[in-house]
Amino acid sequence: MIDIVPFDEGQALLDWIGLTDAIAEGHSLPKAEIADTFLYRDDDTLLTRSAWIDGLGIAVKAATIFPKNNEKGLRNVNGAMNLMSDVTGDLEAVVDFGLVTKWKTAGDSLLAARRLARPESENIVIIGAGTVAASLREAYGALFPNARFTIAGRRLESASALAAQYPATEATTDVEAAVRAADIITCATPARQIVLKGEWLHTGQHVDLIGAFRSDLREADTEALLRSRVFMDSRDTVLHDIGELRIPIEAGEYDPANVVADYYTLNGFTREADDITLFKNGGGAHLDLMTARYILDRWRAR
Question: 52, 111, 138, 201: least CB-packed within 10 angstroms?
Fold first, then answer.
């Protein structure tokens, strides 16, 4: 029997901290085999991601990213998510694409915050005011329930509309001032230009970069990397496929040997008081697999 997991019914069974536990546990299994393909048409992208983790299963996710859909009142990210058995290869489940994407994306960053940010962090800035920013407000709110949040965006109308949906949340268009005052900065924009500058950062902060997902995109400048201790979810997916690291590496401005760890090598890290930690969320297919398996387990246990 193939399980069909829809968005609303599936989401009602999930919690953010439980998901980060599942992602951490997934990284204790044999390292994932992953493969990505990218097809482009101007700003539009077809991204196909596959992963196989021995003992967990197989996942194939196809995502379309059409940025101009927002102008039509449509979602700019769509796709499909299939989960196959590790034992027989049979299709086990079709999980709502939006459900996996939402929880994987924010959960990936949340696990990094659990491990890299100061637990006493109380001022969190979200750069961006779209769908991912809303997911980040939910996720970070679960880990830091007493924190104050600021939605920083180019358009005050959009930032204010999102901020109004949550308590202890305000909006601003002054990104620099918000970043300078923050303990945690999480950045989720589709921008082709730099939106986060290293000169704004100070010791004790944690930076979470999400928006760049292809080789020609980046959100932070090279100075932000050079001033930080840099981490990522997977060296295999980030270093060569995503502009956040690829662009400065190819320009000779950043040495990939300076990357401290990814999730497979992070155990035992302890941050120092004067660290700036920077995490690049690459969102590889192995994380889709871990998230989909967590969702399916909760679905079957309901």
Answer: 138
Q: Which amino acid is at 182?
A: A
**What's residue 5's pLDDT?**
98
What angle in degrees, to the nearest 10, is found between the helix axes of 97-116 and 285-300?
A: 110
pLDDT at 245: 96
Domain 3-101+286-300 fold: ornithine cyclodeaminase, domain 1 (3.30.1780)
- SS3 for 28-75 is CCCCCEEEEEEEEECCEEEEEEEEEECCCEEEEEEEEECHHHHHHCCC
- What pLDDT is attached to residue 276? 98
C-alpha to C-alpha distance for 28 and 73, rounded to whole angstroms: 41
d(CA 170, CA 161): 10
**Predicted local confidence at residue 39, as pLDDT:** 94
DSSP 200: G
Kindly state the DSSP code that residue 90 receives in the 8-state scheme.
-
Are 94 and 4 spatial neighbours (Cβ–Cβ below 8 Å)? Answer: yes
Positions in the chain short of pLDDT 70: none
Pick the CATH number of 113-282 from 3.40.30.10, 3.30.110.70, 3.40.50.720, 1.10.10.10: 3.40.50.720
pLDDT (0 to 100) of residue 71: 87
Distances in Å between the alpha carbon of 208 and those of 111, 226, 265, 292? 11, 15, 18, 23
